[in-house]
Amino acid sequence: MGRRRRGVMSETLKYELAKDLGFYNKVQQEGWGGITTKDAGNMVKRAIQIAEQASRGQGRS
Fold first, then answer.
1. Burial (CB count <10 Å: 0-12, 13-18, 19+), residue 43
2. How far apart are alpha carbons 59 and 8 in whole angstroms?
3. Which residues contact 11 (CB under 8 A, 6 or more apart)?
4. What is the DSSP code (8-state) at residue 19?
5. Is the pLDDT of residue 10 over 80?
6. Is the separation of the CB atoms in 17 and 43 below 8 Å?
7. pLDDT for the residue numbered 44
8. How far apart are CA 35 and CA 51, in angstroms?
9. Which residue of 2, 10, 25, 51 sits 20 to 30 Å from the alpha carbon of 40, by its own alpha carbon?
10. Is the pTM of this model over 0.85?
11. CB 42 within 8 A of CB 22
């Protein structure tokens, strides 16, 4: 009886981050399971940076 957690990041944001971080092609070819743990960690770090900038009113950069 597997219960699946709802993701915190939208699919749109995840794809945008993958493009920004340079592994979008891998996601397109292999799906999200094809990325490395390091790539996933970098996505989380970047998402946090974007959220912090937004909370300070700086927008994305």
1. buried
2. 19
3. none
4. H
5. yes
6. yes
7. 95
8. 22
9. 2
10. no
11. no
Q: Which pair of tokens denotes residue 14?
A: 């995840």
CA-derived radius of gyration, the chain: 13
Structure tokens at 3: 């219960």
- To 10 degrees, what angle do helices 11-21 and 37-55 make? 110
The number of residues making up the chain comes to 61
Q: Which residues of 15-40 are buried (b: 16+ CB within 10 A; e: fewer)?
A: ebbbeeeebeeebeeeeeeebeeebe
Structure tokens at 40: 């996933």
pLDDT band at 2 (very low <50, low <70, confident <90, very high): low
